[in-house]
Amino acid sequence: MTANAQAPAQAAAAPVENLLEVRGLKKYFPIHKGLLRRVAGYVKAVDDVNFTVRVGETLGLVGESGCGKSTAGRSIIRLYEPTAGEVLFRSKALGNGQEKLVNMLDLKPEEMKLVRQEISMVFQDPINSLNPRMTVSDIVAEPMIIHGQKEGPETDAVIVRLLERVGLRPDHLKRYPHEFSGGQRQRIGIARALSLNPRLVICDEPVSALDVSIQAQTLNLLQDLQQDLNLSYIFVAHDLSVVQHISDRIAVMYVGKVAELAPAEELYSNPLHPYTEALLSAVPKPDPKAESGRIVMQGDVADPSNPPSGCYFHPRCRYAKDLCKTKAPEYRELKPDHFVSCHFAEELKLEGI
Amino acid sequence: MAVAQQTLTVPKKKAQVSQSYWSLVWWKFRRNRVALFGGVILAVLYFSMGIVPEFVSPYLLERASNYTEAAPQQVHLFDESGAFRGPFVYGLERQIDTVKRTRVFVEDKAKIWPLGLFVQGDSYQLLGVIPTNIHLFGVVSDDPDAQFFIMGTDARGRDWFTRIIYGGRLSLLIGLLGQLMLLFFGTILGVASGYYGGAVDQVIQRSTEFLGAIPEIPLFMALAAAIPAFWSPIAVYFMLTLILSFVRWGGLARQVRGLILSLREREYVLAAKSAGASDARIMFRHLLPGTMSHVIVIATLAIPGMILAETALSWLGLGLRPPLTSWGVLLQDAATVRAIHTTPWELWTVPFILLTVLAYNMLGDGLRDALDPYGGR
Amino acid sequence: MTQQTLEPLVEVENLRVEFDVRAGVVKAVDGLNMTIYRGRTLGVIGESGCGKSVTARAILNMIPKPGKITSGEIRYHRQAKHLRGENGHSTKTDVVTINELHPDGEVIRQIRGGEIGMIFQEPMSSLTPVYTAGTHIGEAVSLHRLSATKKVGDQIAANVAAARKVDRDEAREIAIEMLRKVGIPKPTERVDNYPHQLSGGQRQRVMIAVALSTEPSMLIADEPTTALDVSIEAQILDIMRELQGSVNMAIMFITHNLGVVANMAHEIVVMYMGKAVERATVSDLFYNPKHPYTQSLLKSIPRLGEKKTGERLASISGMVPDPFNLPTGCVFHPRCPAVMMGKCDKIAPSWTKVGEDHWVSCLLYEEVGA
Q: Which among A64, A213, A353 has the least Cβ separation from residue C300?
C-alpha cells in the first residue's frame, strides 16, 4: 500500500518484498476433434503471463471473458496444471519457519500440500462454493482437518474466532449453507480461506455475484482482514471499479496475455495500452453528466482458441497499424513499475479517467 | 478489531430444528400423499412378509392337508337361518364334479367354523427366537378338521395365502438385497470412472457397455447354470441375487459417472482441492454425498425391476426352485393352462406383485420430487 | 430537457403482487406507483428481492405461479398501429387494463411481443428471498427466449410475420435488416446461424432484434447487459439508445448497476422490498438524492477514478430483511442511517413530493403527527 510512493526505488532494488513471482505462465487446454479425439488445437487460456505480488499488497487481475484471469489464478496453485512457466513463492512452510524461495510448479505432491496452507482461495459463486451437505463448522474446519488437525474443542474455538472475525455469529456453526444469504455465504467462504492462516489469498471474483450493498460490505471486510492479518491478495474480477478500489497494482489481461500492469492510480490516470484506455472509457459511470466521448470498441472479444495474428487486440484497436497485424508486441517495463505490451506505447497519448 | 460488526439475522423459518439437506427432503416428501401411501404399503409388505410371515399367515409353509386344490372359502356373517354369527366359514366336503371330472370341495353347511383374530395355531418361533403359536387370523374351533383357506390351496393341500406370504419374503428381499449390492458396486465404479477419467474411465465404461450388450436372459441362463447343483438353496439364493445385480450395475455406474462429471467442477470441490484434499477425501466427502439422492431414487425405481426379474426367471425355471418359495416359483405352479382351468385362485400371486411394483413406483416418484428441496436452486 | 408533453404509455397504480409459498405469503410488490412515458426510458433500480423483475412481468401479466396480482391496476395506453404517424404519435388511444385481461387470452398475447417486448439477461441464479423459502419459481412463459433449435433468422422472421402481416420473404429481409441494425457483422450470413454459433454478446443483440422486430411501443429490458462484458455492454446500450430515438420507443430498464442506469434513463424509480422509495429525473437522483437508501447506495459503489488509498466504502449496515418477518413501520428503518426511532418503526411513510418531478417515501420529508 505504500509501495506506490517508493516505486522508483523499488524497481531498482532486489525484490525483497515479492511474496509471489509469476514468470511466463502458460495454460493451454487441448481441443479434441474427430472420431479419434485427436488434438486439433489449443485454447491458450493463459499465454505467457508475468507479474509479482508483494507482501501485504493487492494485485488486481482484470479483464473481460476469455482473458484468462480466473485460469491464471487457479493455475498458480495448480488447480489446473500449468503448461509452462514458473511460480516462485516465498514459502515458510517448506523452509521450516524461514522463508524459502520455491518454484511451485516443481514441487512434489507432499510439498505442494504444505504450501497450500499458505495460499488459499475464495470463489465467486456463493451457492456452489460451499458443499450444501456440510455444516458451516465442517466447511470452515475442512482445511484444518485436511492438514491433520483433529476435530475437537480446539478447532471449534478457532472456527468460532474465524466466524466472528468475518462478522458471523457462533450460533451459525451448525447451520447449512442454504440457510444463509449470498453475502453471508461469501463470508463463510472467506472464513474457510483464512482457517490455516495463509499469507496469500487468491480471490476469484468474490463479489461479482453479490448485490451492490453487500459488495461494499464484503470489500470492506476484505480490506480490514488484509490490514489485520497482513495478507496479500490476488484479486480477480471483471468489474474495473471494484478492482481499482481494492488493488494496489492492477494487471489488465486480454486473451491470455497481460496488456498492461501498473499501480492502480497510474493505470487509470495514465494508461499506456489502447485496450486499457478503451476499457476505462467503456465502464458506465454512475454520473449522468459524464462525458459521452466514449471509445466504443467494435467487434467481440477475441476467441482464445483462435486469436488474431500479431497483437491480439489489433482488430479492435483504433490505433492499429500494419506492424500490429503481423508481430506480437513485447511485454516491457516502459516506466518504473509500469509494464505494457504494445508496439506504439511510447508514441500514443492515451486518455485516462 | 477493525471488522465491522453487522446486525445480521438469519432468515427464520417455522419449526426450525435441523435444516440439513435430508431433513428438508423429508419435509417435502411428507407432503406427497401418494408417495407416503406407497411407503406405507411397502412398510406393511416388508414387515408382514419379511419379518413376521409366520404370524401373518394362518399356517406354516409346509403344512400339507387333504384339502387339495380347494377353492377359496367364502366368509359368511349370517347363517342360513339369518342369525348373526360373526365371521365364519362352512365346513368343506369332498365331492366329485362330474363335468370337470375332478375333486372339488363344497361348503358343508352343517359345520360352522368361526373365524377370529390372534388365534392359536401351529407353533413357530417369532423372529427366530420367541416361541409362540399365535397367528394373525384363523379358525377358532375344536374340530380338528377346521380349516380356513382364504385363497384356496394347491395340489398338496397347502394354503395358498401362506405360500404367497412366504414367497413374498424371498422375492422382496431379493429385490432389496440385490439393489443394495448394485448400489454399492455401481456407485463406486461410477465415482471412480467420473472422477479419474482417462484410462480408468475407458476401461469401466467399455466393460459395462460390453456386458450391457449381451442379451440378458441367455447371459442369466449361462450364469445360473454355472451354479453348482449341490449348493444349498440359501447359497443359490444369494448367488442369484449377486448375479442379478452384477448384470445391471453398468446402468447405475453410467448415471453416477454423469453426475460426478458435473459435480466435479463445482467450486466447493475446487475449494477442497485448493486446501490440499486428497482424491479419496474429495470422492467420499464431496462427490459421493452429492450423488446419494439421485442414486437412491434410481435404486428405488429399479427394485421393481429386480423383483420382476426374479419372478420371471424363477417362473422360467432358471432361478429359484422348490423347495424354495418365491413369487416366481408360485407362478410356475399357477401359470399353466391346467392350473388356470382348475385352480385359478393360484393367480392371487399376481396382485401382490403388482401392488409391490406400484408401491415402489409411488415411493420412487415421491423421492425424486423431494430430491430437490431447495426448489429452483 | 425539452418540455414536450409527456404521454403516459403504461401506468402502474397501487400494484400489489403476492406469492403464496409454503412458509407464508411474500409481498413481492407492495403498493407500487409508477408511469412509463412514451418514448422515454424509465430506469428501475434495486437489489435482489426488491420486486423489480416481478413488476416487469406483471406489466405483461406473466407472473409465474404461485404469484398473483392481488390489487392495483396496470393501464396500457394502446394505439392502433396503422394510425401511427411519422413521429409515432397517433390520435386514437385505447386504454387497456392489463391485469383484467385473461393471462392466456387473445388481447394480452397480441400485446406481448407485438406491442410490448421484453428482453432478459442470460439465465443466472439471482438470490431473491422467495428462493430461500424453498419454492420453485419457474419461468411461466418464455417470451423472446432464443430457441436453440431454430435458426436465428427464422426466429426473427416468425416474429415479424406474426406481428406485421408480411409474407415469408419480406419477413426474412426485415430480419436481415434488424440484424444489421443491432450491429451484427455479416447479417446475410448470420441470419442462418443457430444461437449456439453466436457469442453471448451477439445472442443478446439477436434477442434485441427479435424484440424490436415487431416495432413495439415499449421494451422491457430486465438486466439485459448484466452478464455481458463491459465492452459489449457499451455497444448494446448504444444500440438501444439509437433505436429508441428512431422509433420513439419507451424503455423500462431494470438493473442494479447504477452506472448503466445513469447513462440510459431519463427518470429513475428506486425500489426496496416491493415498494418504490424514490422517484426522480436521473440528474436529480444522482446529484440530489433524498431517500437514505438511495444516498447510501450511491455512496457504497466504488467509482472509477476516485480511489483514495485505504478508504472503505460506505456500506449499508445489516441485510435485506426476511420477507416473512418484515420490520414494522418503514421497511428500511433497521438499516437506515437517519432513522428516527419512535417514528420510523411505527409509521409507514407515504409518497411525498420533494421537488419538480421528485418524489420520496420517507418520514424525513413528511409532516406526521407525533
A: A213
CB burial of residue B186 (10 Å; 0-12, 13-18, 19+): buried
* Separation of alpha carbons B111 and C360, rounded Å: 94
Return the minimum-mean-pLDDT range out of A47-51, B278-282, B291-295. B291-295
- Distance (Å, whole) CA A222 – CA A215: 10
Set out the domains of chain B in order of their start, with CATH numbers.
73-148 (no CATH), 163-370 (1.10.3720.10)
Whether C301 sits inside 8 A of A298 (CB atoms) is: no
So what's the pLDDT on residue A292?
Answer: 61
Residues C266-284: pLDDT tens digits?
A: 999 999 999 999 999 999 9
Of all residues in chain B, the percent with pLDDT exceeding 70 is 93
The set of long-range contacts for B76-81, using a CB threshold of 8 Å and a minimum separation of 24, is B79/B112, B80/B109
Nearest CA in chain A to B20: A176
C305, burial (CB in 10 Å: exposed 0-12, middle 13-18, buried 19+): middle
ipTM: 0.84
What number of other Cβ atoms are within 10 A of residue C36's Cβ?
A: 25
Could you say which residues from 20 to 59 on chain B have a Cβ atom under 8 Å away from some Cβ of chain C? Answer: 24, 28
Counting as contact any 3 or more CB pairs under 8 A, the partners of C are A, B
Q: Say what the pLDDT of residue A291 is.
A: 64
CA–CA separation, B133 vs B125, rounded Å? 8
Nearest by CB to A178, which of B3, B274, B374? B374
DSSP letter (8 states) at residue B49: I
- For residue C308, what is its C-alpha cell? 483514495
Question: How confident is the model at residue B377, as a pLDDT?
Answer: 32
Non-local (6+) Cβ contacts of A139 within 8 A are A130, A131, A177, A188, A192
Cβ–Cβ under 8 Å, residues C62 and C172: no
Q: Chains with ≥3 Cβ pairs under 8 A against A? A: B, C
Strands C41-45 and C267-272: parallel
A125: closest CA of chain C, how far (Å):
10
Does B4 contact C at CB distance below 8 Å?
yes
Q: What is the pLDDT of residue C122?
A: 60
Nearest CA in chain B to A130: B268
**All cell numbers assigned to A85:** 512457466
What residues in C contact A241, CB-CB < 8 Å?
259, 301-304
Element (H, E) at A89: strand A84-91
Say if residues B266 and A128 touch (Cβ distance below 8 Å). yes
Query: From CA C195, how far away is CA A65, in angstroms rounded?
Result: 18
Per-residue pLDDT tens digits for B303-327: 888 888 888 888 877 778 777 888 8
At the topology level, CATH places domain C1-115+214-304 in Rossmann fold (3.40.50)
pLDDT at A251: 96
| Contacting residues for C300 by C-beta, under 8 A, at least 6 apart | A212, A213, A215, A216, C313, C314, C315, C316
Question: What are the chain B neighbours of A147 within 8 Å (beta carbons)?
Answer: 275-276
Q: Could you please report the per-residue DSSP string of C231-286?
A: HHHHHHHHHHHHHHHHHT-EEEEEES-HHHHHHH-SEEEEEETTEEEEEEEHHHHH
Q: Domain boundaries in chain C?
A: 1-115+214-304, 130-211
List the subunits that have 3+ CB pairs under 8 angstroms with B.
Answer: A, C
Of residues A120 and B225, the one with the higher pLDDT is A120
d(CA A339, CA A331): 7
Smallest CA–CA distance, residue C75 to chain B, in Å, is: 32
Nearest-CA distance from B18 to chain A in Å? 8
* Full-model pTM: 0.80
Q: For C166-192, what is the mean pLDDT?
A: 81
**From CA B224, how far away is CA B236, in angstroms rounded?**
9
Q: Tell me which of A32, A133, A180, A196 to substitute to probe the interface with B (most B C-beta atoms closer than 10 Å).
A: A133
